[in-house]
Design a protein that fits this description.
6-stranded antiparallel sheet; 27% helix; NHEJ_LigD; LigD_pol_dom; Bifunctional non-homologous end joining protein LigD; 25% strand; 6-stranded mixed sheet; 295 residues; alpha+beta
Protein backbone atom coordinates (compact mmCIF):
# COMPACT_ATOMS: atom_id res chain seq x y z
CA UNK A 1 0.00 0.00 0.00
CA UNK A 2 1.38 3.42 -0.91
CA UNK A 3 2.53 5.74 1.86
CA UNK A 4 2.32 9.48 1.38
CA UNK A 5 3.15 12.48 3.51
CA UNK A 6 0.59 15.24 3.91
CA UNK A 7 1.54 18.31 5.94
CA UNK A 8 4.15 16.26 7.80
CA UNK A 9 1.73 13.40 8.53
CA UNK A 10 2.47 9.95 7.11
CA UNK A 11 -0.62 8.33 5.64
CA UNK A 12 -0.98 4.80 4.32
CA UNK A 13 -3.44 4.86 1.42
CA UNK A 14 -5.36 1.74 0.51
CA UNK A 15 -7.37 0.40 -2.43
CA UNK A 16 -6.90 3.55 -4.50
CA UNK A 17 -8.26 1.78 -7.58
CA UNK A 18 -11.49 0.77 -5.83
CA UNK A 19 -14.48 2.05 -7.78
CA UNK A 20 -16.73 4.03 -5.47
CA UNK A 21 -19.16 5.20 -8.18
CA UNK A 22 -19.87 2.26 -10.55
CA UNK A 23 -22.04 4.39 -12.84
CA UNK A 24 -19.07 6.58 -13.76
CA UNK A 25 -16.14 4.34 -12.82
CA UNK A 26 -14.93 6.97 -10.35
CA UNK A 27 -12.31 5.58 -7.96
CA UNK A 28 -11.17 6.36 -4.45
CA UNK A 29 -8.01 7.90 -5.93
CA UNK A 30 -10.18 10.39 -7.82
CA UNK A 31 -12.11 11.18 -4.64
CA UNK A 32 -8.86 11.89 -2.79
CA UNK A 33 -7.56 14.01 -5.67
CA UNK A 34 -10.76 16.07 -5.63
CA UNK A 35 -10.62 16.69 -1.88
CA UNK A 36 -6.95 17.65 -2.04
CA UNK A 37 -7.70 20.05 -4.92
CA UNK A 38 -10.55 21.89 -3.16
CA UNK A 39 -9.18 21.69 0.39
CA UNK A 40 -8.35 25.41 0.52
CA UNK A 41 -12.02 26.34 0.07
CA UNK A 42 -13.58 23.38 1.89
CA UNK A 43 -11.59 23.43 5.14
CA UNK A 44 -12.70 26.92 6.29
CA UNK A 45 -16.25 25.53 6.37
CA UNK A 46 -15.36 22.44 8.45
CA UNK A 47 -12.61 23.78 10.69
CA UNK A 48 -13.60 23.84 14.36
CA UNK A 49 -16.82 21.89 13.80
CA UNK A 50 -17.68 18.33 14.78
CA UNK A 51 -17.83 16.20 11.66
CA UNK A 52 -20.10 13.31 10.83
CA UNK A 53 -19.35 11.14 7.81
CA UNK A 54 -21.27 9.04 5.32
CA UNK A 55 -18.95 6.12 4.61
CA UNK A 56 -19.27 3.84 1.58
CA UNK A 57 -16.39 1.36 1.88
CA UNK A 58 -17.77 -0.84 -0.93
CA UNK A 59 -18.91 2.03 -3.13
CA UNK A 60 -22.11 4.03 -3.24
CA UNK A 61 -24.12 1.03 -4.46
CA UNK A 62 -23.02 -1.04 -1.46
CA UNK A 63 -23.45 -0.75 2.28
CA UNK A 64 -23.23 2.75 3.70
CA UNK A 65 -23.40 4.11 7.21
CA UNK A 66 -23.47 7.45 8.99
CA UNK A 67 -20.57 7.71 11.43
CA UNK A 68 -20.24 10.27 14.20
CA UNK A 69 -17.72 8.57 16.48
CA UNK A 70 -14.07 8.52 15.39
CA UNK A 71 -13.42 5.43 13.26
CA UNK A 72 -11.37 2.60 14.74
CA UNK A 73 -7.67 3.29 14.43
CA UNK A 74 -8.02 7.07 14.25
CA UNK A 75 -4.48 8.51 14.51
CA UNK A 76 -3.69 10.49 17.65
CA UNK A 77 -2.88 13.56 15.54
CA UNK A 78 -6.49 13.78 14.29
CA UNK A 79 -8.22 16.33 16.50
CA UNK A 80 -11.31 15.09 18.29
CA UNK A 81 -13.62 16.94 20.64
CA UNK A 82 -16.18 15.39 22.97
CA UNK A 83 -19.69 16.75 23.30
CA UNK A 84 -22.40 15.83 25.76
CA UNK A 85 -25.28 14.08 24.04
CA UNK A 86 -28.89 14.41 25.14
CA UNK A 87 -28.50 11.09 26.95
CA UNK A 88 -25.72 12.58 29.06
CA UNK A 89 -23.07 10.46 27.32
CA UNK A 90 -19.80 12.15 26.42
CA UNK A 91 -19.10 11.33 22.77
CA UNK A 92 -15.96 12.38 20.82
CA UNK A 93 -16.13 13.44 17.18
CA UNK A 94 -13.53 14.31 14.59
CA UNK A 95 -12.81 17.89 13.51
CA UNK A 96 -11.72 18.16 9.88
CA UNK A 97 -9.30 21.01 10.48
CA UNK A 98 -6.53 20.35 7.98
CA UNK A 99 -5.61 18.67 4.71
CA UNK A 100 -4.08 15.63 6.40
CA UNK A 101 -7.34 14.89 8.23
CA UNK A 102 -9.33 15.43 5.04
CA UNK A 103 -7.17 12.96 3.10
CA UNK A 104 -7.22 10.48 6.01
CA UNK A 105 -11.03 10.59 6.07
CA UNK A 106 -11.28 10.24 2.30
CA UNK A 107 -9.03 7.19 2.43
CA UNK A 108 -11.59 5.59 4.74
CA UNK A 109 -14.22 6.21 2.04
CA UNK A 110 -15.79 8.98 4.13
CA UNK A 111 -17.48 10.31 1.02
CA UNK A 112 -19.75 12.88 2.68
CA UNK A 113 -18.89 15.38 5.43
CA UNK A 114 -21.64 16.91 7.56
CA UNK A 115 -21.41 19.45 10.39
CA UNK A 116 -23.87 21.18 12.73
CA UNK A 117 -24.70 24.90 12.68
CA UNK A 118 -22.43 25.61 15.66
CA UNK A 119 -18.74 25.31 16.45
CA UNK A 120 -17.18 22.85 18.88
CA UNK A 121 -15.86 25.75 20.96
CA UNK A 122 -19.29 27.35 21.43
CA UNK A 123 -21.97 24.66 20.98
CA UNK A 124 -24.60 26.74 22.76
CA UNK A 125 -24.46 29.38 20.00
CA UNK A 126 -25.67 28.93 16.43
CA UNK A 127 -23.41 30.77 14.02
CA UNK A 128 -25.14 29.44 10.91
CA UNK A 129 -28.70 29.45 9.64
CA UNK A 130 -29.67 26.89 7.00
CA UNK A 131 -32.73 26.22 4.88
CA UNK A 132 -32.80 22.96 2.93
CA UNK A 133 -35.06 23.32 -0.12
CA UNK A 134 -36.19 19.87 -1.21
CA UNK A 135 -38.25 19.43 -4.41
CA UNK A 136 -41.36 17.33 -3.92
CA UNK A 137 -42.74 14.98 -6.60
CA UNK A 138 -43.43 16.91 -9.78
CA UNK A 139 -40.91 19.67 -8.99
CA UNK A 140 -37.19 20.09 -9.61
CA UNK A 141 -34.20 22.06 -8.42
CA UNK A 142 -35.37 24.87 -10.72
CA UNK A 143 -38.47 25.26 -8.55
CA UNK A 144 -36.16 25.32 -5.53
CA UNK A 145 -34.29 28.22 -7.14
CA UNK A 146 -37.52 30.22 -7.45
CA UNK A 147 -38.32 29.61 -3.79
CA UNK A 148 -34.74 30.49 -2.87
CA UNK A 149 -35.07 33.91 -4.47
CA UNK A 150 -38.21 34.62 -2.45
CA UNK A 151 -36.56 33.35 0.71
CA UNK A 152 -33.48 35.51 0.08
CA UNK A 153 -35.68 38.62 -0.10
CA UNK A 154 -37.53 37.65 3.08
CA UNK A 155 -34.29 37.15 4.99
CA UNK A 156 -32.90 40.42 3.66
CA UNK A 157 -35.91 42.19 5.14
CA UNK A 158 -34.66 41.00 8.54
CA UNK A 159 -31.11 42.12 7.80
CA UNK A 160 -29.86 38.60 7.04
CA UNK A 161 -27.71 37.93 3.95
CA UNK A 162 -28.08 34.52 2.34
CA UNK A 163 -25.78 32.45 0.14
CA UNK A 164 -26.84 29.51 -2.02
CA UNK A 165 -25.36 26.12 -2.83
CA UNK A 166 -26.64 22.95 -4.38
CA UNK A 167 -27.37 20.19 -1.91
CA UNK A 168 -25.51 17.78 -4.17
CA UNK A 169 -28.68 15.72 -4.15
CA UNK A 170 -31.97 17.06 -5.54
CA UNK A 171 -32.34 20.52 -4.05
CA UNK A 172 -30.74 23.66 -2.76
CA UNK A 173 -29.33 24.97 0.51
CA UNK A 174 -29.50 28.57 1.70
CA UNK A 175 -26.93 29.57 4.31
CA UNK A 176 -26.52 32.68 6.46
CA UNK A 177 -24.17 33.74 9.24
CA UNK A 178 -25.66 34.44 12.68
CA UNK A 179 -24.51 35.99 15.91
CA UNK A 180 -26.02 35.95 19.36
CA UNK A 181 -28.51 33.13 18.69
CA UNK A 182 -29.02 29.77 20.34
CA UNK A 183 -29.83 26.70 18.21
CA UNK A 184 -33.37 26.77 19.61
CA UNK A 185 -33.81 30.38 18.53
CA UNK A 186 -32.42 29.67 15.07
CA UNK A 187 -34.73 26.69 14.72
CA UNK A 188 -37.79 28.69 15.85
CA UNK A 189 -36.97 31.55 13.48
CA UNK A 190 -36.40 29.30 10.46
CA UNK A 191 -39.61 27.43 11.17
CA UNK A 192 -41.55 30.68 11.39
CA UNK A 193 -40.12 31.97 8.12
CA UNK A 194 -40.84 28.68 6.34
CA UNK A 195 -44.43 28.70 7.60
CA UNK A 196 -44.82 32.30 6.52
CA UNK A 197 -43.73 31.47 2.96
CA UNK A 198 -46.11 28.52 2.91
CA UNK A 199 -49.02 30.82 3.81
CA UNK A 200 -48.01 33.27 1.09
CA UNK A 201 -47.40 30.65 -1.61
CA UNK A 202 -49.37 27.54 -0.60
CA UNK A 203 -49.34 26.10 -4.12
CA UNK A 204 -45.56 26.23 -4.35
CA UNK A 205 -44.21 25.83 -0.79
CA UNK A 206 -44.75 23.49 2.15
CA UNK A 207 -43.09 23.73 5.55
CA UNK A 208 -44.71 20.70 7.20
CA UNK A 209 -42.79 17.45 7.57
CA UNK A 210 -45.49 15.13 6.19
CA UNK A 211 -44.24 13.73 2.88
CA UNK A 212 -47.81 13.36 1.64
CA UNK A 213 -48.06 17.18 1.50
CA UNK A 214 -45.05 17.71 -0.77
CA UNK A 215 -46.37 16.75 -4.20
CA UNK A 216 -45.99 19.67 -6.61
CA UNK A 217 -44.34 21.82 -3.94
CA UNK A 218 -40.92 22.64 -2.55
CA UNK A 219 -40.41 21.56 1.04
CA UNK A 220 -38.54 24.12 3.14
CA UNK A 221 -36.76 22.01 5.72
CA UNK A 222 -36.03 24.25 8.70
CA UNK A 223 -35.24 21.39 11.07
CA UNK A 224 -31.53 21.25 10.26
CA UNK A 225 -31.10 24.25 12.56
CA UNK A 226 -31.76 21.98 15.53
CA UNK A 227 -28.72 21.51 17.76
CA UNK A 228 -28.70 17.76 17.05
CA UNK A 229 -28.90 18.02 13.25
CA UNK A 230 -26.17 18.34 10.63
CA UNK A 231 -25.94 19.57 7.04
CA UNK A 232 -23.70 18.58 4.13
CA UNK A 233 -20.80 21.04 4.13
CA UNK A 234 -19.88 23.19 1.13
CA UNK A 235 -17.79 21.25 -1.41
CA UNK A 236 -18.50 17.84 0.08
CA UNK A 237 -19.04 15.00 -2.36
CA UNK A 238 -22.34 13.16 -2.01
CA UNK A 239 -22.91 9.40 -1.96
CA UNK A 240 -25.27 9.57 -4.92
CA UNK A 241 -25.21 7.42 -8.08
CA UNK A 242 -22.85 10.02 -9.60
CA UNK A 243 -20.10 11.89 -7.69
CA UNK A 244 -22.07 15.10 -7.27
CA UNK A 245 -20.92 17.94 -5.04
CA UNK A 246 -22.74 20.31 -2.70
CA UNK A 247 -21.43 23.29 -4.64
CA UNK A 248 -21.84 27.03 -4.10
CA UNK A 249 -23.81 28.98 -6.70
CA UNK A 250 -23.93 32.64 -7.60
CA UNK A 251 -27.28 34.35 -7.28
CA UNK A 252 -27.07 35.01 -11.02
CA UNK A 253 -26.98 31.25 -11.57
CA UNK A 254 -29.97 30.80 -9.28
CA UNK A 255 -31.92 33.50 -11.12
CA UNK A 256 -31.08 32.08 -14.55
CA UNK A 257 -31.84 28.44 -13.68
CA UNK A 258 -33.99 26.83 -16.34
CA UNK A 259 -32.69 23.27 -16.63
CA UNK A 260 -32.19 21.18 -13.48
CA UNK A 261 -29.24 19.42 -15.14
CA UNK A 262 -27.35 22.74 -15.11
CA UNK A 263 -27.49 22.61 -11.31
CA UNK A 264 -25.80 19.21 -11.11
CA UNK A 265 -22.11 19.74 -10.40
CA UNK A 266 -19.63 16.90 -9.95
CA UNK A 267 -16.05 16.40 -8.81
CA UNK A 268 -15.04 16.99 -12.43
CA UNK A 269 -16.81 20.38 -12.61
CA UNK A 270 -16.09 22.00 -9.26
CA UNK A 271 -12.26 22.39 -9.32
CA UNK A 272 -12.44 24.58 -12.44
CA UNK A 273 -15.12 26.71 -10.80
CA UNK A 274 -12.96 27.13 -7.72
CA UNK A 275 -9.94 28.06 -9.83
CA UNK A 276 -12.03 30.66 -11.65
CA UNK A 277 -14.17 32.05 -8.82
CA UNK A 278 -12.48 31.07 -5.57
CA UNK A 279 -14.91 30.31 -2.75
CA UNK A 280 -18.31 31.72 -3.65
CA UNK A 281 -19.20 31.33 0.03
CA UNK A 282 -16.22 33.31 1.31
CA UNK A 283 -18.52 36.14 2.37
CA UNK A 284 -20.29 33.76 4.74
CA UNK A 285 -17.05 33.45 6.72
CA UNK A 286 -16.36 37.17 7.09
CA UNK A 287 -16.90 38.50 10.64
CA UNK A 288 -19.12 41.30 9.37
CA UNK A 289 -21.50 38.84 7.68
CA UNK A 290 -22.99 37.58 10.95
CA UNK A 291 -26.38 39.09 11.70
CA UNK A 292 -28.59 38.88 14.80
CA UNK A 293 -32.00 37.27 14.58
CA UNK A 294 -34.83 39.83 14.74
CA UNK A 295 -36.48 40.21 18.09
Amino acid sequence: MPITEVEGRRLTLSHLDRVLWPATGTTKAELLHYYATVAAVLLPHTRGRLASFVRTPDGVDGQRFFQKRPPAGTPDWVRTTARVRSSGELMPQVEVNDLATLVWAGNLSCVEIHTPQWTAAVPERADRLVFDLDPGPGTTAVDCCRVALTLRERLAADGITAWAKTSGSKGLHLLAALRGATPDQARAYSRRIAAELERERPAAVVSRMAKADRAGRVFIDWSQNSASKTTAVPYTVRARPHPTVSAPLTWEEVEAAGDPDDLVLTIEDVPARVERDGDLLAGLLEPGAAAPLPR
